[in-house]
Write a structure and sequence with these properties.
Blueprint lengths: L2 H25 L7 H57 L4 H18 L16 H15 L5 H26 L7 H21 L4 H25 L11 H10 L2
Helix pairs in contact: 1-6, 1-7, 2-3, 2-5, 2-6, 2-7, 2-8, 3-4, 3-8, 4-5
Length: 255
């Protein structure tokens, strides 16, 4: 889901609901707007507003948690990749090809997730299908090491453990990249908000000040939905997770 398009749709629905409420006020029979009717409508809209506020609060917390978790996973993966490279360096010169494979895999991942930060001289290192192959080849190379002493055996064991953690982190990031806000849920929330703004329009006087206030309120609601969807998709959009940890790691891998 494109957050900008969804936010615009939400704005149109919510602000359109307020304008619709103003039109309904003109055509509704007068006895439908007496004090008793107003009290019942206000109670009902208060209930819906409370539910919508609670749901939006939970969704914002969930989206922020998703964003922070993915950001933390990228930082931990970068640190583990750098540690794995250091372990292979200590193991001996026979791991040079494996270290080269790690550098190419990190560069390819940076090139694919953050293409807008790609240097003009950079080229794609692998096809899109190459990442799983590179990870499988890395694990195979680690298993194929033949330690000659206890120190190398210990380094191989640690390298295999860290390599497994890197693979686990990779699949965790890929599995959580699809977003956690389902479309039916979003439709229901927008419906609630639209109904609330319809009630605002029914009881609001028709003047430019009231319309301006309703416009600002509708814009604020749309911005809230935009932020939720942006945080829920941490590898796309304006609030994309920073590539700095992986770029720092890559700069030290080539040393």
């Amino acid at each position: 889901m494109n957050p900008t398009i969804i936010a615009l749709i939400v704005f149109v629905c919510v602000f359109g609901g307020a304008l619709l409420g103003m039109l309904l006020r003109v055509v509704m029979p007068e006895h439908h707007l007496n004090e008793d009717s107003k009290d019942v409508i206000k109670l009902g809209m208060g209930l819906i507003a409370t539910i919508a506020a609670l749901v939006l609060g939970l969704v914002i917390a969930s989206a922020k948690s998703t964003y922070d978790t993915q950001d933390s996973a990228i930082k931990h993966a970068a640190a583990k990749i750098l540690l794995l490279d250091r372990l292979l360096t200590q193991y001996g010169p026979e791991t040079e090809e494996t270290r080269t494979l790690i550098r190419r895999a990190v560069a390819e991942r940076l090139d694919r997730i953050w293409p807008e930060e790609r240097p003009h001289t950079a080229t794609n290192l692998d096809t899109p299908e190459a990442a799983p192959t590179a990870n499988a080849e890395l694990e195979f190379r680690l298993w194929q090491l033949t330690p000659k002493n206890d120190a190398q055996r210990g380094l191989q064991a640690r390298a295999l453990h860290i390599g497994g953690e890197i693979m686990e982190t990779r699949w965790f990031v890929l599995g959580a990249s699809g977003g956690s806000v389902p479309l039916p849920f979003l439709i229901v929330v927008v419906f609630w908000l639209t109904i609330i703004f319809v009630s605002f329009g029914i009881f609001a006087p028709r003047n430019s000040t009231v319309i301006a206030v309703l416009l600002v309120c509708a814009l604020s609601v749309a911005c809230a939905i935009f932020l939720i969807l942006e945080m829920d998709q941490p590898f796309t959009g304006m609030m994309k997770i920073s590539s700095a940890p992986l770029r720092y790691t890559l700069s030290h891998l080539v040393q």
